[in-house]
What we know:
Blueprint lengths: L6 H11 L9 E2 L10 H17 L4 H22 L6 E4 L2 H11 L7 E5 L4 H14 L2 E5 L10 H8 L4 E7 L11 H10 L7 E5 L11 H4 L3 E5 L11 E5 L17 E3 L5 E4 L13 H17 L2 H20 L4 E3 L9 E6 L8 H9 L3 E2 L1 E3 L4 E5 L6 H16 L1
Parallel strand pairs: 1-13, 3-4, 3-5, 5-6, 6-7
Antiparallel strand pairs: 2-8, 7-8, 9-10, 11-12, 12-15, 14-15
Helix pairs in contact: 2-9, 3-9, 4-5, 6-7, 10-12
This protein binds pyridoxal-5'-phosphate.
Amino acid sequence: MTHDSSGAASAQITAHRQQYSALANKQYFNYGGQGPLSEPALETIVAAYRKTQAIGPFSVAVNSWVMKVRQDLRVAMAQELGCDADAISLTEDVTMGCNIPLWGQDWQAGDHILMSDCEHPGIIATVEELQRRFGLEVSICPLMATLNEGNPAAIIGEHLRPNTRLVVISHILWNTGQVLPLKAIMETCQSFQGNQPVRVLVDAAQSVGVLPLDLTDSGVDYYAFTGHKWWCGPEGVGGLYVRPGIRDELAPTFIGWRGILYGDRGQPTGWQPNGQRYEVATSAYPLYAGLQRAMEFQNEWGDAQARYDRLLALSAQLWQGLQNIPDITCLRHEAPESGLVSFQLTGGAKQNKHPQLVKFLEDQQMYVRLIMDPNCVRACVHYLSLEHEVEQLVGAIAEFCAS
Ligand SMILES: Cc1ncc(COP(=O)(O)O)c(C=O)c1O
């Protein structure tokens, strides 16, 4: 399907959106928190639960269906991420996907982790606990300040140490919306001459479902993502990409029957040869089918590039509209490269009244969120957003500023 700004394209997106009940009664700008679930995805989940009851719940038939559902989802994820399905492990969420490589390294006291200053609190807490338990060095790399100028890859390079083993960054910074240059960062880390190779863990909470991706080409080591944000799947299903060439150096930490090989008496004999080694045990499999349908439904509207192009047009519209409000300062000085548009109330009577603005908007069924660091408000647009919704949001923010 091709998409342009014609009436036909606008009718298509309107029809597509009708399949998302959450979008019917509000103006939704919190895709970075959680995406809405489409009716086809919801129906698939319900049908899968019914099927499980009809042919099981525990039976040979259910077990073979479950194996197929798991593999189909890995294949669908791999297609979107530009990698082999064998490189994918199914998880519950981004945080679990980050915990697997964080805990799975053979840490030695004195090893160094370099983490950006824009990571999510759950990831920071994990790194701090690793530091405490294993006697690691942790330092923070100032990437927030590169939103409008500077070279994030070069800054990471300047902060690497001979004992650095892991760099922890996000592909798209959840607070400012900045897209980090993943390939350049990988090149910097791979060419660094330290005591041991520098691996890179990427939190992909805000990039998967936003940008077209080619993980194999990027050279990234670990890439942790979720289905419930920009892919608009159900909460509770995510994934982890582990670069196949380094799989054997990452030991499973959370261990269960899904990740192991079996001997003739059913005893564990080793790890699964692929990403399944990091999967643990029983999961809510109907949700896997639901996420796959959610992704397929997005692709029925347009491929990753078409969705990203529309998202960029909408975030440019929002950014431009906010630029025109005198009391608002957008964090970014040019149109964003992601769907996250962060801004501050910097002038007038409403200066810094960010919580009040979030509440004012939510009272009118317009959903945005507060960010603590930097202190700002974040509005997200997806390809699902509508031009007139963006216009109304800008109008409501201008009204708040003037009130
Ligand atoms: C950058 C980032 N990392 C991690 C998370 C947590 O995601 P999950 O609940 O899927 O672990 C979020 C959620 O907002 C996020 O934005």
